[in-house]
Task: structure prediction
Amino acid sequence: MTVGSTSWITISAEEFCLSVRDGTHDSPKFVEQGHPLVTSKNIKRGKIDLSTASLISVTDFDEINRRSKVDRWDVLFSMIGTVGEVCLVDTPNINFAIKNVGLFKCASEEDGRWLSLWLRSPAAKAQVAERLRGSSQQYIPLGELRKLPIPAPADRIEKLQIVTAAQVYDDLITTNQRRIALLEHSAHLLYREWFRYLRYPGHESVPVKDGVPEGWKLQPLSDILTLNYGKSLKATDRKDGRVPVYGSSGIIGSHNQALVGAGAIIVGRKGNVGSLYFSHEPCFPIDTVFFISPEKSSYRLFLALHQLNFISSDAAVPGLNRAYAHSQPILLPSEDLQARFEDLAAPFFEQIHGLSRYNSQLTQARDLLIPRLMSGQLDVSRIPLPEEEIA
Result:
């Protein structure tokens, strides 16, 4: 096809790639020590989450990789359940195998980056949707993956310019994520220094009995707060808006009406049990989480909750039992020390909030811009690129 003065060509994924395969269909035995087995559920938001991956033996790992070895700059694609999650493998050392995951073998970094961009575009998602099979659980057959149409500019320079423009956004988002992780780590270190190791200002002159400094209290969580149940809100019932919707895996969408004001702490109740989030904005916690009202929330409490043993305790449905959570003991410092800590911790969380908001803006801008570039509607050479924000 020709868009403006630029000529584009469209070929199948099988022609674009060295090959298009999928992972094993077998179910290898899981072991306590071994290599991770990546399935569709481990591909999330462009990344591979190995924290929940089961482990397989070296023998099974080698057997799977004879057919479906993953190399750097390959593209992975979730084929079953949540179909269409895309991940560009950009690390050199691959220590996992794949099961029921599409594997696009790419000849170069340039091809891998282009393909991953295209597969995340609205046009590609529409192509995938037309090829889905299954009623109770959707999937896309390997044969359909191989036939997916892949458009690209005939001019390699233009192709590189588009890939580079997208990479600027992705690199800046990744940089901000690293800065956020460092700030979070610093806040946790400060908390542990004061409240776990009891090396807070003036600690030398405060007597300690049974691990509790004078003037502090050790009491059950229920004495200082209430874990409120979130409210059911189906995806089909959500209205367009800027209010973040929280589930146990974090922000899962948006709505036009908040359930709770800014400053609430969110606690995972089902699914990602015990996960913790601090919402700087009014939000809507759904029924897979608890929330703590802003009046009872603080940065110190948020950090303190990370120290508690929130385990799965419901027998019938895995989840966090509220009575069990309320019974957990928590150390309550003096009011003066709480206030002093809050003043020190606030700048960390304010920077985290600012960087998170900027990342959201970058993601929205990228997701609006890239499809227009990849369809040839915009001249990439005239697009202003984002700059790093000083937190």
Remarks:
- Residues 156-196 form the longest helix (41 residues).
- The first strand starts at residue 2 and ends at 3.
- The radius of gyration is 24 Å.
- The chain has three domains: 2-153, 155-201+339-391, 217-332.
